[in-house]
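hey can u run this one w/ nicotinamide-adenine-dinucleotide bound, need the structure tokens asap thx
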Amino acid sequence: MAGTGLWLVGARGSVATTAVVGLLALRAKLVEPVGCVTERPEFAGVPLPAWEDIVVGGHDVVHTPLEKRAEQLADAGLIPHRVLAATATGLRAVDARIRDGYHPATHTGAQADAVARLVEDITTFRGEHGLDRVIVVNVSSTEPPAPSLPEYSSLDLLEAALADPARSVLPPSSLMAYAALRAGCPFVDFTPSPGLRLPVLHDLAVSLGLPYAGSDGKTGETLLRTVLAPMFTARALRVRSWAGTNLLGGGDGANLADPVQAAGKLESKARGLAALLGEGVTAPLHIDNVPDLGEQKTAWDHVSFEGFLGARMNLQFTWTGLDSSLAAPLILDLTRLVAAAHDAGQSGPLASLAFFFKDPVATDEHRFAQQTDMLTEWAQALVHSADSYPQADTDTPETSPPADKMARRDAPGNGWGLGNARASDEASS
Amino acid sequence: MAGTGLWLVGARGSVATTAVVGLLALRAKLVEPVGCVTERPEFAGVPLPAWEDIVVGGHDVVHTPLEKRAEQLADAGLIPHRVLAATATGLRAVDARIRDGYHPATHTGAQADAVARLVEDITTFRGEHGLDRVIVVNVSSTEPPAPSLPEYSSLDLLEAALADPARSVLPPSSLMAYAALRAGCPFVDFTPSPGLRLPVLHDLAVSLGLPYAGSDGKTGETLLRTVLAPMFTARALRVRSWAGTNLLGGGDGANLADPVQAAGKLESKARGLAALLGEGVTAPLHIDNVPDLGEQKTAWDHVSFEGFLGARMNLQFTWTGLDSSLAAPLILDLTRLVAAAHDAGQSGPLASLAFFFKDPVATDEHRFAQQTDMLTEWAQALVHSADSYPQADTDTPETSPPADKMARRDAPGNGWGLGNARASDEASS
Amino acid sequence: MAGTGLWLVGARGSVATTAVVGLLALRAKLVEPVGCVTERPEFAGVPLPAWEDIVVGGHDVVHTPLEKRAEQLADAGLIPHRVLAATATGLRAVDARIRDGYHPATHTGAQADAVARLVEDITTFRGEHGLDRVIVVNVSSTEPPAPSLPEYSSLDLLEAALADPARSVLPPSSLMAYAALRAGCPFVDFTPSPGLRLPVLHDLAVSLGLPYAGSDGKTGETLLRTVLAPMFTARALRVRSWAGTNLLGGGDGANLADPVQAAGKLESKARGLAALLGEGVTAPLHIDNVPDLGEQKTAWDHVSFEGFLGARMNLQFTWTGLDSSLAAPLILDLTRLVAAAHDAGQSGPLASLAFFFKDPVATDEHRFAQQTDMLTEWAQALVHSADSYPQADTDTPETSPPADKMARRDAPGNGWGLGNARASDEASS
Amino acid sequence: MAGTGLWLVGARGSVATTAVVGLLALRAKLVEPVGCVTERPEFAGVPLPAWEDIVVGGHDVVHTPLEKRAEQLADAGLIPHRVLAATATGLRAVDARIRDGYHPATHTGAQADAVARLVEDITTFRGEHGLDRVIVVNVSSTEPPAPSLPEYSSLDLLEAALADPARSVLPPSSLMAYAALRAGCPFVDFTPSPGLRLPVLHDLAVSLGLPYAGSDGKTGETLLRTVLAPMFTARALRVRSWAGTNLLGGGDGANLADPVQAAGKLESKARGLAALLGEGVTAPLHIDNVPDLGEQKTAWDHVSFEGFLGARMNLQFTWTGLDSSLAAPLILDLTRLVAAAHDAGQSGPLASLAFFFKDPVATDEHRFAQQTDMLTEWAQALVHSADSYPQADTDTPETSPPADKMARRDAPGNGWGLGNARASDEASS
Ligand SMILES: NC(=O)c1ccc[n+]([C@@H]2O[C@H](COP(=O)([O-])OP(=O)(O)OC[C@H]3O[C@@H](n4cnc5c(N)ncnc54)[C@H](O)[C@@H]3O)[C@@H](O)[C@H]2O)c1
Ligand SMILES: NC(=O)c1ccc[n+]([C@@H]2O[C@H](COP(=O)([O-])OP(=O)(O)OC[C@H]3O[C@@H](n4cnc5c(N)ncnc54)[C@H](O)[C@@H]3O)[C@@H](O)[C@H]2O)c1
Ligand SMILES: NC(=O)c1ccc[n+]([C@@H]2O[C@H](COP(=O)([O-])OP(=O)(O)OC[C@H]3O[C@@H](n4cnc5c(N)ncnc54)[C@H](O)[C@@H]3O)[C@@H](O)[C@H]2O)c1
Ligand SMILES: NC(=O)c1ccc[n+]([C@@H]2O[C@H](COP(=O)([O-])OP(=O)(O)OC[C@H]3O[C@@H](n4cnc5c(N)ncnc54)[C@H](O)[C@@H]3O)[C@@H](O)[C@H]2O)c1
Ligand code: NA
Ligand code: NA
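ok here u go:
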């Protein structure tokens, strides 16, 4: 599956930078693919883009050179110094493909103008690199939860509001998701921000035949919770309280120090615990900004539970993770998997990717073992569909894919002002 | 499924006493069945003996009255005082059904004589209470691993040695397992002792058509390991070391303070970790006797792992459990499930019960989520087999079970000197 | 030193009830004085009231019988059942000496009326039991911090406001402290509430020649912080962050779940850390109400520090305490020590008792080892002053103490309407 | 106090290398003196050698260049890469001053011959650099405890045995201590090895007027124990068990993986706990070699204690330290302080330096706060003695020190074959 673009929103952040350095290092065989789920034996045979076939670009609102950001991450222990040296040239190339993102504070005019420019950035990238498809992945700063507005349920209302220079109807993440869809791109929401989760955007993705995945990467405390909680259930033990404290530094720590920004994260964590254990569990949860921890995140959880004859027991864990190290390979995995889904003609929310997310779309399955099974089965099905439609992952573009599949992927531009950009893009694929 | 006997080897120990108090409390509806896996919705419809239908007896080598033992456990926080008061009469009744176990230091004569007496104890119990079947469950003190002897692979050699007053060829747990089989009883090995795991005993169980389950109840650190290790695997993270320290008091703590006795426990724990994560993980493990902890067990594990680009991270957990509270309901669950297996005509090692054990028989599946699925599916199959053979769990003994099933369960007494006891027992069912 | 009264404000709370049961148990020699600092060898020879010589009464705003409260605490693991049984009679006697406390929601009229009644309660108690002195100890629910008011710095303004039925100028803890002083009693502030810490009350205590101690008993996380922080300082290690989470149930947990109430507690904790380590340490701190923990408090602290050449290291601790078990013996210790101070003619804030408090009065010494030395030296000085003035701790009241000492303790009633009560009380001593 | 030599035994090890890099970095003002106790305000005015005045040499039995060792430590996170670059030249200079140490496996001939050579190495170093004195500091691999031999109590017997080529009477650390004394040098024992702790060597140090300090640097778990244990005592809480597990990689981890080598370490830790809390505390303790942790050491301690009315509580801590980062600045501190002691004419064991050691010589004081006071008072006394005898820390060697003081420091060479070397050394000062 040659020519997959990865368009990172928040391309100069910790997660994005680590993902890019890692991709370059994997390509150069400097490191083993530790942390890359799609390199596990279960995924052999799944038609995924190779490391060599992924081209990276993106948006950000700051201008720190990627190389400088990578140096900071090396000092923080996330990237070995030898890898840094070996990937410098590659990093500069990606840096040159990062465009200015949308920022509500600096943008003037209607949001529709911003959309047009964002779409243009992506389609130009797709065209210049002759890419089959571009996966847009949101790894920008967390935003607060969105209120409920009529515009979020009606495309007509939304587009009218977007055209109104006096309004800023969409939060940046959702504006970006909208732009991605309008550019004909699958979208991955690695943050808890509203992103593509507005009903109107979901409908649009479905109608455009575009798959999407999300929300909020599961890399630490929540990962453990979704692993441990089913144990209590299976053993008929009654969890009475599950308290958590997260200490984190880095850009994410600074951002989440703001209770308004943190709200989304706390909500997505709480939803998960209730889905796993039911209501009635006392579950205080804190996120603290502790700058001296740098890129490290430390989570402490205290689980108090009741056993036979009312016996009281507890489990505590302390997780010390380098968040971006955990997240970065998943960004690459998601790019590959969503590319395969797109290639296989899937559209709408990809529930089978729940494995990656704190707040998975289109499913209530939070149990990690079950999510692992779902993912593996889904990927296995791709092997077989790839077997039946071999053109999907070969280098023989002259062979036509089955009509309904093309149809679905053809949809994006229909009846929308960016037809040209998309068309030229498709032409180049 | 009326009339199931539970014969506890180690009937005056912590686990046994807690199980008996709990059974009485459940029967009297004094407590909810927290910790009882077979009371989960997944087991609705499985033909299991009701709490009312389980009669308890057992062997032990000490004479502390069960009521006194229960008081000690109440002081240690395992049993609420109100439950103690309400179950005193029931406890005295069980106490009256406990017989002297086999102890190598006090026994004189050939081990075969001991076997005859142990079998007699069990069959008398079965007869007096008119029980359909008796499940023998080993919850006696842990023994060291057994060496490899020719007698452990040949029934002829074994029986010759048993008959020789100069030898003590079988460790107590295996002698007890042998006696259980000779009494026509399914056997559950809740300890890491040799028990039924000698090849000759396995063959005997199969040939007698008796099911068995084991080994070594999974209630703490190992439970967590089998829950957590698959997470690292699924996420392609590389575990480099997994260190553990177990602090425990109680009878088990005192017993395991002896490195020879502890060897079995440490071995069964190590086997599990290697099965989960492969070789190459540094895994120091300690069991310390800390008498002041009483019935509490505290385990600390430190897992160091490598992620993307060589990043080093770790997870620590502290588990504070009341071991016997965790074990006791599983004893009741196992009694029910093995009774159902026996009733359904299953024989030999029950791999589907791996969920309960550190060192499961007949399977290498250590992953807890997979074990949970195996258990549920197996239990569901019993529902259906029960549907087809309704006599299995009804009160209509006049209806004959299918021939092959009877055949299997008929086997025990064949060609062995205890035919009479068994026969009278069957007659009484 | 016969005849010391202990007047507990919050007499039906967990701390108070545990202290009372403990006092009765010590008196009956049912338990060893574990946790009682004044029973350590360093205090031999200090003229302290014996357990036999302490009579307990108090105020509370609820009516739960002390015996019932004690049963709840026994179920929660704080009091052995056998001790409960043996102290029931004693508990009923104390219960009969508990009077209705002041509650702003139920009181009508001027606060001065409430004061008069509270003073009357205490002086009657002192008179009826012929006590030399009564130590008033505040162990009632935590109150929020008080604002800064002109009335808190001027006795005239304060008393005018107290007389005004339209105002409630003093928070309950301070009203109680004021009443204690007016009754001629030393005061101990075991809570973080404003209590005696208003400047006007401090001045009053000094002018009345009454000693006082406080604030906020140091029994868990803060105790550890004041033990551990000096280690980092002595080793020239640079603490960068010290994060803490406290999980607690019980009455205190419920109370502190209210952020307004918790403010005082959080403030007193933060003050201590800054005093120990200077400014510039990131120190997020949480108190969570986790009802299922009952009387247990679990605190987790994560300390990140920098060493030689910028190396980053950390220390984590988890403290699992039964708060009232830790606090109760200190209540008895404080009663004894403040009685001795009063007897020795000391007045105003007792800085030497900083050992017991999170937010010690009249000193900035938070280091626990230094506080231990201060306490021991101070107590040793009492031995010697007792040697020179032997009448202070003997049963020969006819011998006059030195004039200036008496003068100081004589002060309370002067120029205040409760002269009679006090006089009769003194007469009875 | 110009011209102090630091002679490191084990000069190519982690602790030594970190100390050398650190000294160079401090001298170049590349880093702040975090972790250096002698830079704390309490030590202002104490006549200590400046960083500039310390010259380093040493012995080791391996030949890895110091610069290479430092790179490994940089990769392990102990030394910042920028510091490494800036100290490379200095490191090479120190490297050139490292001589072959004594190794029992490679040495042939009598141990006396080895001593002569080791003494020669040190005195040559002292002479070439015109040093006032050389402090010999043992940071070589841990050795097992020594048996009790008559030669360890009699100088005559010892020297006879040393002269016998058929014997290896002294373990390397003690041979090195003996050589240090014979070279007229104070000795610091930072390891738990026998070193100078044989009675005969103690006597020799005293008779030669040489001060010494030891044993076994206190940098992690034991440091915390000596900080925390006094808290339990002061609060009259009864510690029932104190369990510990240490996970460590690095050279020390590999060495201590051998139970024989670890014995010394475990013994010195156990002695400390008993001295702090008395006998009767269950205290299992483990040291595990976990290579993947590299230079990191993680200790977990679980303290179970009893409070008022028998209440059971616990404290757990996890310490994650970089051992060599913690040890290295103490090596520099000890060099300075022992130099000052020598300069002030002190001889024999320096009990006041207990602050630095797990198993302090000549004192049973293990409480860290008390040790801190002892150290500060002792250092303050040096300020005053320096005031009275200003020549001790000035550059005016023409002024004679008081006779007895000189006498003491004059002793080393007397009646021993290395008179010349020492004389030329003294001449150069
Ligand atoms: N393990 C993990 O790291 C993890 C897990 C789950 C979710 N996430 C989420 O991933 C996101 C990124 O985390 P990070 O640690 O890399 O944070 P970061 O602060 O290092 O990076 C965020 C980047 O987004 C950029 N940005 C902000 N607003 C933007 C906009 N409107 N358009 C384009 N770029 C914008 C910022 O300039 C910054 O470079 C966060 O939302 C975080 O919550 C991370
Ligand atoms: N969570 C758990 O508690 C758990 C988990 C896994 C395995 N186990 C195993 O269960 C067993 C029981 O644990 P426990 O805590 O109840 O121990 P315990 O010491 O309280 O009880 C063991 C009992 O076995 C009796 N016994 C010893 N030898 C006997 C013999 N030859 N015949 C009959 N009785 C004999 C003893 O007298 C004692 O009453 C142990 O082997 C333990 O390792 C327990
Ligand atoms: N280790 C400790 O337990 C500890 C340490 C430091 C401080 N404290 C403080 O001690 C106090 C008592 O703690 P607790 O756990 O016993 O709480 P609790 O809730 O069990 O008891 C408080 C009692 O005070 C009573 N009360 C409330 N308002 C009153 C009033 N106006 N007058 C008289 N009585 C009143 C309540 O009815 C209750 O009986 C709290 O303020 C707590 O913060 C406790
Ligand atoms: N925090 C700490 O690091 C700490 C604390 C207390 C004690 N210690 C002790 O300090 C010592 C050094 O620790 P490390 O981590 O640097 O160990 P290391 O293994 O890195 O270094 C020890 C060095 O000693 C050398 N050596 C071995 N035998 C020798 C001999 N006979 N003569 C000369 N050199 C010899 C080795 O070659 C090696 O270079 C150990 O004994 C350790 O127990 C260290
Ligand atoms: Na969902
Ligand atoms: Na103060």
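The longest strand of chain A covers residues 238-248. anyway lmk if its weird
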